[in-house]
Amino acid sequence: MNAINWSTSCSPLKVLLCTLLLSCVTIRSSSAFNTPPSAAVRHSNSVQSSIITASSLSSASPETAVNELNWDKVTDEWELDCYSRPVLVDGKKKLWEILLTDSSGNMRIQRVLPSNKVNSREVRRVVEEIIDNSEVKPSTIRFFRGAMFNMINIALSEIDVVARPSRCTFALAQWIEERNRDVYPKMDGYRPTMGGVGGIGGTFLDIRTAVKLPDALRGEKYAFVGLPLAEFMEGGGIDASNIGVGRLAPVDNTLPADSFVQGVVILTPRAKALASWLAGTEVAGLKADLRKRELVMETDIDNQYLMAKLNDEQRREAAVYEEGKDALGGLHFISVQKDEDDDPAGFWLLREIPVNL
Question: Minimal CA–CA distance to 343: which of 43, 53, 22, 16?
Answer without folding.
Answer: 16
